[in-house]
Amino acid sequence: MSFHWFKPYAPRSLYARAAIILILPMVVVLLVVAVAFMQRHLEDVTSQMTRTVSREISLISDQMKGADSRQEALARAEPALSALQMQARFLNPGEVPSVGSRRWYDFTAPIVVDKLHQLLPAVTAVSIPNSRRTLVFLETELGPLELAFDPRRLSPAAPHQLIVTMVFFAVLMTSISFLYMRNQLRPITRLADAAQAFGRGRSVPYAPSGAIEVRAAGNAFLDMRARIERQIEQRTMMLSGVSHDLRTPLTRLKLGLSMLPDEDAAPMLKDVDEMQRLLDTFLEFSRGASEGTPEAVDPGTLLRQIVEDARRAGRSVELSECQSNGKVMLRPVAIRRAVENLIGNAVLYGTCAEVSMSLTPKTLRIRVEDDGPGIPPEQRLEAVKPFARLDPARNQNRGSGVGLGLAIVADVARAHGGVLRLGQSERLGGLCADIVISR
User: Fold this and answer.
1) Measured between alpha carbons, how far apart are the two ends of the chain, in Å?
2) Euclidean distance between CA atoms 90 and 75, whole angstroms
3) SS (H, E, C) 151-202
4) Cβ count within 10 A of residue 188
5) Which whole-number Å values give the CA distances from 202 to 169, 329, 364, 427, in the listed order?
6) Where in this chain does the record put each Histidine kinase domain (predicted)?
7) What's the pTM value of the predicted model, to 2 decimals?
8) Domain covering 4-153: architecture
9) Dihedral (C-alpha) 418, 422, 425, 430: value to the nearest 10 degrees?
10) What stretches in the chain show pLDDT beneath 50?
11) N or C terminus of the chain with fewer C-beta within 10 Å?
């Protein structure tokens, strides 16, 4: 049997699911026990006790038959009334209630009333107003008769006590279970928070705790985090060293070429500058999103500065929408590099760029659109890979890039716990690049 229909309604957090696992069996057990107790025990015992009382009432009614007056009838029934611990009195016709009263929480009263009406046709009403007195109204030859006796003769005393006791201890044990469960789930929550922070480029203090399995997962996470950090550091140091070592011979080449005639040195100087630019690009990619530390930043202010710097550099960039109502934990240097790469691509492959931003309680979205040729949907996954060159899609003849621009942007987005999404601009018709970061 498939339960896929239930998934949209099921809670998503581990704490809520564990709570359902605790509460649902407890509620089912309480319902089953309560129903079984009410139907099998209380109902049977109450029926037997009511049947006995109905015989006693019949005996008293038979002793009153044939009496000429009410006093004589009460006198004949006095011995039986005294022995059965009942009180009797005759009423006027208007004093008899049409419907008997009972307490709302008395589960056995309906059984008593139905049984007395079934066994004694002369009963007109049954009233059980409290736990000290039961009133049965009969229609006799001498008029309405009221019989009063202890309600404990009809049903067990306080039948609701068992249910109240079960509910009380169920709530008590469930509360204790919740406290214990919260202490057991807290280490898992701390591990999830540390992993989420590391996925967003932040390393928060974390010490494994909790059950053996949770401690093992925590130690594995710490080992993995240390290896990743060491690998990133080694990669950055290696590429930085390579870039630094290659700058020296490139500088010597520039000095040597500067002594040659301009017509002979110009092509070679251009090649040297191109090599220098490629080295800078490789170094930028090696640093990725690890440059700088996360801090609370107003993304709107940061984006306005980036657009203003791009305008001063002579690029055609417009800031169309900038909804900002709070701060977000970001690496400003990495975000600046990512947005500048998107703006550079936009003005390189198109004539203008349009930047917008929206900030919601859950996400931050930075969008850069252009009026260029765009990227076909089937090539967008390939476009964000390092060293990918999509000549037909992005008109690579305009520049001499190495295919790291979008890869750097995707790396920055992932380091902030977000993603880079590529699509088609509805406003300009070119590429639409969204950096979406969860808050």
Assistant:
1) 39
2) 12
3) HHHCCCCCCCHHHHHHHHHHHHHHHHHHHHHHHHHHHHHHHHHHHHHHHCCC
4) 17
5) 46, 10, 17, 36
6) 241-439
7) 0.51
8) 2-Layer Sandwich (3.30)
9) 140
10) 392-400
11) N
Cα separation values, 312 from 292, 307, 315, 317, 371, Å: 25, 9, 7, 10, 21
Q: Classify domain 292-438 by CATH number.
A: 3.30.565.10
| Cα–Cα distance for residue pair 15/19, rounded to 1 Å | 6
In whole angstroms, give the CA distance from residue 78 to residue 49. Answer: 22
Q: Please write the tens of the pLDDT for every residue from 352-403.
A: 899 998 888 888 899 999 988 888 888 888 888 776 666 544 444 444 455 6
Contact 106, 132 (CB under 8 A): no
Residue 155 φ then ψ, to 5°: -155, 165
Q: CB-side exposure of 397: number of CA atoms within 13 Å?
A: 2
pLDDT (0 to 100) of residue 196: 81
Q: How many Å apart are CA 354 and CA 232, to the nearest integer?
A: 33
Give strand ranges (E) for 171-307. Answer: 295-297
Tokens of 46: 């109450």
CA Rg value for the chain: 43
- Helix, strand or coil, per DSSP, at residue 82: helix
Cα–Cα distance for residue pair 68/43, rounded to 1 Å: 40
Between CA 410 and CA 347, with CA 291 as vertex, the angle to 5 degrees is: 50
57 and 136 in contact (C-beta within 8 Å)?
A: yes
At residue 290, what is the residue type? S
Bin 13: left if φ > 0, else alpha if -120 < ψ < 50, else beta.
beta
Largest CA distance in the chain: 150
Distance of alpha carbon 127 from alpha carbon 151, whole angstroms = 10
Q: Mapping DSSP to helix (H, G, I), strand (E, B) and coil, where does residue 13 land?
A: coil
The first and second tokens of residue 222, run together, are: 């710490």
**Cβ pair 145, 91 in contact under 8 A:** yes
Among 436, 281, 298, 426, smallest CA distance to 345 is for 281
One-letter identity of residue 298? D
In whole angstroms, what is the distance from residue 404 CA to residue 284 CA? Answer: 9
Q: What are phi and psi of 319, to 5 degrees?
A: -105, 105
- What token pair was written down for 231? 């690998």
User: What's the pLDDT at 173?
Assistant: 84
Q: Are residues 407 and 345 in contact, defined by beta-carbon separation less than 8 angstroms?
A: no
Query: Which sequence spans correspond to the domains of the chain?
Result: 4-153, 292-438
Q: Chain centroid to CA 365: how far?
A: 23
